[in-house]
Each structure stands twice: as structure tokens, then as C-alpha cells.
Amino acid sequence: MTVQLLKDKIKNYMEQKSYSPLNAEDLIASLELNGVELKAFWQAMKDLEDAGAIVKTRFQTYGLPQKMGLVSGRLQMTAKGFGFVLAEKDSGEKDLFIPPSDLNGAMHNDLVIARVAAVKNGEHPEGKIIRIIEHANAKVVGTFVPSGEYAFVVPDDKRLGCDIYIPMREFNGAKAKQKVVAEITVWPVDRRNAEGKVVEILGSIGDVGLEIISIIKQNDLPLKFPPNVLAAAKKVPTTIKQAEIAQRQDRRDRTIITVDGEDAKDLDDAVYVEKQGKDYLLGVYIADVSYYVKENSAIDKEANERGTSVYLVDRVLPMLPETLSNGICSLNEGVDRLTMACEMLIDGKSGKIKAYQIFPSIINSHHRMTYTAIRQMLVDKDEETIAKYRDIYPMVQQMEKLCLILKKKRMDRGSIDFDLPEQKVVLDAQKKPIAIIPRVRSIAEAIIEEFMLAANETVATHMSKAKWPFIYRVHAYPDLSKMESLAKLLATFGVVLRAQENMEPMVLQEALAKMKDKPEEKLISTVALRSLKQAVYQTDNIGHFGLAAEFYTHFTSPIRRYPDLIVHRLLRKWLQEHTISAVASDELGLKLETIATHSSMKERAAAEAERATVELKEAEYMAGFIGQEFAGTISGVTSFGIFVTMENGVDGLVHISSLTDDYYDFAEDKYALVGFNLHKTYRLGDEIKVEVLQVNIPEHQIDLVLAGENPETKQYLKTQLQEKNNVLGSKTKSHGAYFSSLKSHAGMEGKRHRGKDKKTNKKVKGRKKRERTKY
User: Looking at per-residue confidence, does 120 or 574 come out higher?
Assistant: First the structure.
């Protein structure tokens, strides 16, 4: 039994059969653990305690927080000084309001345990933090403000609340108005500030590119590789030995191609399709990174720590050094490359995989194709492009047919697709934003998505049936309460959604299909997407709700995702041994659980940084349009205003105080602001015209007003909003990238727009409710 399964067993027993806290010996006896389970017991208990799922009392007994009047979860602070403990997703508890006086030194995003102090009718329960399980802000990025023999670092993230006190001996050369990284050495206690030391000077306020560097450091992302990793990368061979080729299946004679964006440099997947009677042979060939990156090597340890490549708006922070990611591992055109192959024989009618092989191979990519070129051939029927690639044009046509067959199979089983718009910020040579353009999606992108999905499912199914320890990409069933809220909204449009526990994805897919091509389709898709959970890596397979897949993993991008590299390593081990002992399986399972948890955490940090850099450049771009009008759609409704997605895809806030014709109430169940006297309604999905009032670039905030306001009113609103944004800045900032993150949700797993994901936004009492994302 893996540690994860044992943790579930412990929690289930404590929830259903334990009437009081138990000591470890009683718990072991009650669970009737065998020798293998007993070995994993203490690790499982430590993991549960570290996560706040169980609480160890002063009497050395263990209990569940919810049965002890406690709530465990992440503390989400506001710039106003109060916060909320966001209850763990499966606890069934409500989020807990924490006033400033009861923070007890906790900071934004700390994992804490709080005691419920009071519950008032119609309001959120109020509590007091009694224990900090895990500090989340060991390093803080901010502005250095000296004051004689001491200084403060004022955090960029206003939700951190308190400035960091820096004694003179810890200035380390920092000057006034410099952006620095401060490491906390003494955590805050009661109302005392945290104390720290300056560990890095990033630059002076106003320096070109400083904002991006600050975002990178704020999310604790590495800018450079350590010298030992670069030295190890230089030693990686750049040619392939004949002895290695002899041990692999040779596919160099096939017209295998890569298909990527024009600016992609790390080409980690290649494809081939051949019609065989009524069936199709689909070959997916993935860069064999595991051949070059050996377990526990310097490169491997660094890749594990990074977890993923990070695709920021103006640069890439790769998981592997460039000599590997863009060199020997990249499936570049016209050169021999080692790959791990997954070849599938697919029924030409049903799309069912009739047979498959997984094996090490060698290929030589015949063409470095782009989505644009494939689109020109299949959609535009461009004769020049067809003539240029006449050797593969028949195969590309077969790829289109197979893509449609695979997609139909996936949709027939209930997979959910959200085809929401996505934008790209175009930068000039000086990295200044010059345009915001929509990302084009067509059959070209769909072909690669469907082929990668097929390979990922095949590999996951294979390893599950082989009963090997493995890393799956899982996506849990949505919460019933979220589905019930969605059902109420759908009911207003005459669509029935039968919300229930463990609802099958087909039920949701069919309900959403009834909104197809209606004016409210985007509204419903947005709300539905916000209602779904976040996908993660884990060793216990629970399936993938969004894809309606019983088995799913990430196999196709080992250059840029560490879990994929591990999947390749596991496949190699299986190919060599085929069987694994119970002891070895348990030991490997423990390692994989640690990797899966760490990779999920790094994925979220990368997504946060990616979104923040996009928001920054969007704010810079919109600063050139102050006073101009835009058509837009209401994309979010809160108690403090409405978020509007303008026609160029950028989000801004129309603060409720700028609605000067009436008093407005927040009708949460209707996703609307409703006028008290005139009953005018601003609802999610409504189309309106707005004007850019002001832009706060450092805070990534864009303030809007309804088009047509007179100059006197706009000047008054500008003054008022400058004050209010000091409080609401964190809310506006986190919502601004909402649409840019949607593509990484369920049903979007196959899409290769790098690292887009995040958040829900359901307001309660003027703050942003728990945000979940990324399938």
C-alpha cells in the first residue's frame, strides 16, 4: 500500500469510526496494519500532520481539526490587514475570517491551524490562528527604505501586510529606492514585524526589466543554472554511439515530423501517421531525455528542484540547460535523435486503440513544421505550401482525419472542452508591449493535442495494468456545492444540470452543449470552468474528470516537465525488468509521491509568475490608452465592482463607486450587481462599453469607468479609486490574468500553450473566495 492510500485509510477511519483523538498505538491496532503498511505508517502520519489534515495534541494523541473546533488551511491575507483561512478542499469546512489582532504572527499564504471563535448568522465564522504549520515567505521581494541605523523592506505583495525590519548590519550594501530580496531571519510575533537581512540587490526603481526580475524572485524561480550543472551539461555527448542505435528500433526511414509554434526551440515531440487498411498507425516519438539525464546526477537534481520550464512573457526559464533542451534532446530537423516511442494501431471508425508498443527508438525528423504551415495546407489550401511539403502532404491529410476520429471518441465519453479566447502579448526588441493579439487555434493545434492525449492515456493505462508505481496526472470530481451553484445559473436559461456527488463528466458536458452558440455561452463556460478543481500529479490514480479519462499521465514533454522525465525513467525500468518486488515497489512509491507533490507545487509557482508577467505587460500596454473607449464583456462580478474583459482580451475593474446613477447590491446567486432604485443590472456576460480611467503599472491594475462619464466625475473617481486600490489592489491584480489562465483547465490538458492556469473569483464580504485552477 502506498503512503497516499494509507493516508486515505487513516483519515477515513478517523472520520467515520473514531469518536475521540487516538494515540499512535491505538490507531495502529484499530487499523489492523500489516508489516508493509506499518512501515509506511509514520511517514503517512507525518505527511497528514504537516498538511494540517490531522492535529497532534499536547497529550500525544491525534485528532481531526474539524472535530476539534479547528480549521486548517492556507491563510489568504488582504491588503487591509485581515485574512481568511481557506479550509482544505475536502474538509467540508467554511473559510474562516481572521481579524488582524488574531493573526499571531502568521503571514499571507502560511499553512495554519485556527480555532473557530464565533459564528454569526449570515456571516463567515471568525477565528484565531493558534499554530503555524508552514511558513510560506522565507524570502520577500520589496523596496529598501532606510531610516538611520535600521531600514525596512516594503514588500511588493501588499498582502504580506507588514514591512520587514532590517538592522544596519544586514543592509549588505542596499541603498534607498532599490528593489531587494530580503530573507526573513525572525518571524513576526503578535504585532512585531518580521526581521530579516538583504540577500540580493535586484536594481533601482525605474531600471528597465526590473519588474520582471522582481516577479521571478518573488516566486522563487531560478535565473541561472549552478556552475556544476552547466559543467555537467557540457559533458553530455552531442553524438549518438552506434552501439546505442543497435539497441533501439530504427524509425529514421519514416517521414516523422515535429509541429510547434514558430518561436519554439525545445522540440520534444514528433509524430507520424500511416493508413493501414481501415485502421491508422499513429506514432508519437518523445525526446529520450532520461537517456541523457541520469538519476541523482547534478542535472537531474536541478531539474527536480525546478520541476518545470517557466514560459514568461519575455523569456524562458528552462528546466534543463540549453545544450540539452535546445541541443541533443531537441528533435531538430535533419538530425538523428534518441526517442521513447509510443506507436498505436487505432480503429479507423471508433478511434479505439487496438494495439500498441512502447519502446526506445531513434528518429530523424524530416521537417520542422509549424502550426501556421499545417493550417495553410489543411485550412487555406495554399498551393505554395502544399508544393513545398508535397512529400508529407498526404500524411498531413491523414492526420486531420485521425484527429477528428480521436476527438469524437473523447467527446463521446464525456470529455469537456472549453474553447475560450486566449491572447498573446507582442513585445518589441526592447521588450515593450506593442500589441495584444488573439492566439489562433485551428486543426493544426488540435492534431498535436489529440495525438499527445492518446499517447499519454496509452502510457498511463499500460503502467497501471503492469501494476508499477507511477506518477499520474489526476483531476478529481468537482465539489457538489459548486455544481449546485452552476445548476442554478443554468436553470435561469432553461438548462437542467442534475448536480450530484461524483457526477460523471458527460452530465456536465451535455448541459454545457445546450448553451452552444447562445449569447450566454461564454458566461456559462467561464462559470463552469471556475467551478472545477485543480489537476495535480500523484501516485494514486483517481482518473481525470475533465478528460473523462480513466488513466492519464504526462509523458510527452520531458524537456520541460520533470514528471514526464520520471515517467520515461519508469518506462525504461519496466522495459528492463517487467516485474518489481513489493519492497522495491513501496520504496519507489515513496520517492514518486515526494516528486509528484513537489512538481505540483512548482507548477503552481510557475503559473503564478507567468500570469504576473503577462499582467504587467498588459498594464504597460494599456497605459497608452487612458481616456480611450473599448467594447467589453463583464467577466467577473464582485461586491466591490465588475471586471470587464475588453475587446483586446485585457481585464480591468469598474469599481462599484464609479456607478453613480444608483446604489448597487451584489446578487451573488445571479452573478450580478443590481441597482437598488432603478433595478439596472450588470451581469456576468453582459456587453458594455468602458473607458480606461487610469493604470497602475507596478500593481498591474487597470481602472475602468463606463463610457460617457463627464470629466468632473472621472477626475473625482480617479482620486477616490487611487485610495481604494491601496486596499483592493491584490484582488484586482489576481483577477487580471483570469482569462489567460483558463486554457490550462480540464479538457485543455493536451494544449501546449505554455503554463497558463488559475483562479476562481467568488466574492464573500468584499474578498476573493478560494481560487482553484489548472486541471
Answer: 574
- Residue 550 near residue 587 (C-beta atoms within 8 A): no
- CB-CB contact of 342 with 459 (8 Å): yes
Nearest to 271 by CA among 399, 441, 385, 360: 399
User: How far does Cα 399 stand from its chain's mean position?
Assistant: 30
Instruction: Give residue 760's pLDDT band: very low, low, confident or very high (50, 70, 90).
Output: very low
What tens digit of pLDDT does each residue of 482-516 get? 899 899 889 888 899 999 988 999 999 999 999 98
Q: What is the pLDDT of residues 229-280, one digit of tens each?
A: 999 999 999 999 999 999 999 999 999 999 999 989 899 999 999 999 999 9
Alpha carbon of 81 to those of 475, 706, 771: distances in Å?
Answer: 34, 30, 20
Burial 632-658 (b: 16+ CB within 10 A, else e): bbbbbbbebbbbbbbebbbbbbbbbeb
Pairing status of strand 83-87 against strand 96-98? antiparallel
The alpha helices in 367-469, defined as continuous H runs, are 371-378, 383-388, 393-412, 443-465
C-beta of residue 684 within 8 angstroms of C-beta of residue 667: no
Strand, helix or coil at 142?
strand
Q: Residue 347: CB partners within 8 Å, gap ≥ 6? A: 278, 279, 353, 354
Pairing of strands 701-706, 651-655: parallel
**pLDDT tens per residue across span 27-82:** 888 888 877 677 788 888 888 888 888 888 878 888 888 788 888 888 988 877 88
Instruction: Look at residue 665 and tell me whether its pLDDT is greater than 70.
Output: yes
> Interhelix angle for 3-16 vs 24-31, to 10°?
100
- CA 350 → CA 135, 341, 347, 405, 674, distances in Å? 51, 23, 6, 7, 50
String of DSSP letters for 737-754: THHHHGGGSTT-TT--ST
Give DSSP secondary structure letters for 610-669.
Answer: HHHHHHHHHHHHHGGGTT-EEEEEEEEEETTEEEEEETTS-EEEEEGGG-TTS-EEEEGG
Enter the DSSP assignment of 94.
Answer: P
Cβ neighbors of 670 (< 8 A, separation 6 or more) are 492, 681, 683
pLDDT band at 367 (very low <50, low <70, confident <90, very high): very high
Name all domains of the chain by residue range, CATH numbers in brackets.
3-63 (1.10.10), 69-133 (2.40.50.140), 139-207 (2.40.50.700), 227-464 (no CATH), 477-532 (no CATH), 626-761 (2.40.50.140)
| Rounded distance between C-alpha atoms, residue 521 and residue 71, angstroms | 37
